[in-house]
């Protein structure tokens, strides 16, 4: 994977700028977003020709009143009970989309686990470790970033846990 130059980062998203500033090897993949597609994540996997098991979606949930980021494969769903357990909580529910957008600084379908406006506790599904690289949103619809799961975990200070189903 190639690092992006500072010039490429300048016009990027907060996620790509954060990756460049950290010196993390990554590849940015752009594709034409179709607003009619029923799933942002599946659309990304199809457009990039990547297995849906390697493309991860970023979801924002509330665990005992605290906004928490969950990063799970687009091929499955988030196990809210497992997410709560992973961060030592009792109850989790999906966050209000408008609150998630305001807090992260990204729009739904383009929320990245990187470069968020407010740093939130993050849990990465442990299945990410089965792949040399995974893809996550680069901060807008139609833009993904591919990087090593260990680098994503380090940059987001993520806990790895079995939070995905299916």
Structural class: alpha+beta
The shape, in one word, is globular
Hey, roughly how much beta strand do the residues contain? 25-35%
Distance between the termini: 29 Å
Task: Tell me the number of helical segments per DSSP (H or I, 4 or more residues long).
Answer: 6
* Unreliable runs: 1-10
Biggest sheet, spatial arrangement of strands: 5-2-3-6-9
**Largest beta-sheet details:** 5 strands, mixed
Instruction: Report the strand count.
Output: 10
Helicity range: 25-40%
Please write the string of helix (H) and strand (E) elements.
Answer: HHEHEEEHEHEEEHEE
The mean pLDDT is 92
Report on this model:
The protein is α+β, with helices and mostly antiparallel strands. It contains six helices and ten strands, in the order ααβαβββαβαβββαββ. The protein has helices at residues 6-10, 14-22, 40-48, 80-86, 97-104, 149-156, and strands at residues 27-30, 56-63, 66-73, 77-78, 92-94, 122-125, 134-140, 143-147, 159-161, 164-165. The strands form three sheets. It has a five-stranded mixed β-sheet with strand order 5-2-3-6-9. Strands 1-8-7 form a three-stranded antiparallel β-sheet. A hairpin with a 2-residue loop joins strand 2 (56-63) and strand 3 (66-73). The protein is globular.
């Amino acid at each position: 994977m190639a690092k992006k130059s500072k010039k490429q980062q300048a016009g990027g998203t907060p996620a790509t700028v954060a990756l460049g500033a950290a010196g993390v090897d990554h590849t940015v993949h752009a594709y034409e977003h179709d607003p009619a597609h029923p799933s942002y994540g599946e659309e990304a996997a199809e457009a990039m020709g990547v297995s849906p098991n390697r493309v991860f979606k970023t979801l924002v949930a509330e665990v005992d009143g605290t906004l928490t980021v969950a990063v799970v494969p687009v091929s499955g769903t988030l196990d809210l009970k497992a997410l709560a357990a992973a961060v030592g909580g009792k109850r989790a529910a999906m966050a209000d989309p408008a609150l998630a957008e305001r807090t992260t600084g990204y729009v739904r379908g383009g929320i990245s686990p990187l470069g968020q406006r407010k740093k939130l506790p993050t849990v990465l599904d442990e299945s990410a470790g089965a792949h040399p690289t995974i893809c996550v949103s680069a901060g807008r619809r139609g833009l993904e970033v591919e990087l090593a799961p260990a680098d994503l975990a380090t940059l987001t200070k993520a806990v790895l846990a079995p939070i995905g189903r299916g």
